[in-house]
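Homework help board

Subject: predicted structure for assignment chain

Our instructor gave us this sequence and asked us to write out the predicted structure in token form, then describe one feature. I got the tokens but I'm not sure how to describe them. Can anyone check?
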Amino acid sequence: MRVAATRKLWEFGLAILGLMIVLLVGGYGKALLPTATEILWDTYGVPHVFARDARDAFQAFGWAQMQSHGDLLLRLYGQARGRAAEYWGEDYLDSDRWVLTMGVPDRARRWYQLQSPAFQSYLEAFAAGINAYAQEHPDLIDDDVEVVLPVKPEDVLAHLQRVLYFTFVVNPARVRGVEKHASGSNAWAIAPSRSANGHAMLLANPHLLWSEQFLWYEAQIQAPEVDIYGATLVGFPGLAIAFNNHLGWTYTVNTHDGWDAYELQLQDGGYLFDGKVQAFETENLTLRVKQPDGSARSQPLVVRRSIHGPVISQQDNKALALRVVGLDQPGVLEQWWDMARAKNLAQFETALQRLQLPMFTVMYADRAGHIMHLFNGQVPIRRAGDYKYWSGVIPGDTSKTLWTKYHPYHDLPRVIDPASGWLQNANDPPWTTTFPQALDPANFPAYMAPQFMHFRAQRSARMLEEDPQISFEEMVQYKHSTRMELGDRLVADVIAAARQYGNELARQAADVLEAWDRQTEADSRGAVLFAAWTQEVKFPEVFATPWQADSPLTTPHGLVNPQSAVKALETAAGKVRQAYGALNVRWGDVFRLEYGKQKLPGNGGFDDLGVFRTVWFAPQKDGTFTSIGGDSYVAAIEFSNPIRAMTLNSYGNSTQPNSRHNGDQLSLFAQKQLRPVWRSRQEIQAHLEERKVFTAGVRTQR
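My token output:
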């Protein structure tokens, strides 16, 4: 009896010891809470925050962003205040006018008061981390931006508004109709039934400019009830694209109409509305502009607001007023935090249903095997009209066109666990997220989203549709595909027409195009010539058959006028030969990857060519093109146990001038490689570059 009892006691003791070991070294599982908050920096400059509580996590994340992006962050916050011209001169005057006309600083102060008490404390902590870093390392902050210090929680919210609402939803270039290459994305969710390994997989691939407020910051944040890894835009206090041990999500810019321009009829100092003259709400502001000699001049700014929103232009007896969604919805940061803490689809949707995020398609996958596509956004409930109507200028003299409410969550296009086993979005409308199509546009208001499927989206769907069992390695390979869908669609027709109607130069060009591999690899010969031809023809008029909703993956196609297409080829060939000396010049000799001081042969190409591996290039004086944006943060995630993930931040995880991580990932980008994600302490410590430990006393620096 005693021996048996002793054995049971010994076995119980071993079990308790084993449990303690699991808790202490449990890797990705729940671990004992740290006695101190710390940041472990890995060899790619990624901060891994291990915090005692949520408030400490936000404070450490503020510190981390300052160490990686301090100069940029402060400059962005100065712009969000509408005081950038006061700090840095005339170049920022238009930015200040826009920010103040949109009412960003005042609204940020109101939004702060509307946060929950807990989230107010998190914003205070994030700002405190920023200020604490600047106080401890003043020599590492550019003297030019120190004027922004100290940072306040309201600055964080003002920056959020400027980026989300007054850059992504609407911005001055979009109002003028001249915006190019500001934002895009690819996103995939693959179900276990479609994956070679039986696990759901997620691909995150936003496309943004490689500068300013569009830069991604990669990080891990671990605190009680949360362990998330992902990326956010510089200056945001939480991760926007992320995954945890249970699920993950990413975004694409969707075809969401979140703003309207209303034409006002001016009369007697006001504007007509429902047959009566209404007075403008007027605010007189003063802009201060720093002069080259250090002095400042003052400039008045009169902001007028109608019932629709701020007036942005006036000509004769008409004015244009702007109405933007979501300005009364201040909870997006807290929604992100709750999405990060979700452990299953139901909890994740509970957070999403608040609809605090003004736009973006949400692509989701989880360990349970669920995948989801949500056409997310604050979509106004409009009385009538289709997407094209609401994309124009709207009559502002009647309440019939004034929207005041948004569609609830259950009204939005959404697909969960489709029969196909895959979902994609490449900035196309929600109707083409999978095939067979799971959404019918006829079941939604005509203004919800347009109908089209551009070539990058067709390329995206084609790769998924053609592979019945996709491995993790194949998903990464497909992500880097430089194949040009537009080339596949038209090059045979161009070659045939050139040989029938063209001169000697056109026939030589046809030979180059025939030998072309239809890709935009650095060594591809013929891609430069075909891209030059696309600049000499008019789209979509060049096609014989336009895009058709009942043939979304095979239209448009054919040349409407082969002889005209050949004339364009002759012109393009002449320009290419004159600029580069040969028709079969390598793509990477003309299109170059550049960030900081690094210059490498380029691969990838423009969205409108149908290249999934998107890179935007800007022309240079010598005839070459230099990368300015496109693929930025990339994450490939397999929801196995443990989770497998690889990632890349194309330009590196720091912009500070003396950081070794400013541009250190561009060579991997050029080689089309991702790097492994390190999440456990053991992995991070094996690749540790720096450790920052915060004692309890750090809170006194808030």
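Reply (TA_rk): Your tokens look well-formed. For the description, you could write something like this. The CA atoms of residues 427 and 660 lie 34 Å apart. That's the kind of observation they're looking for.
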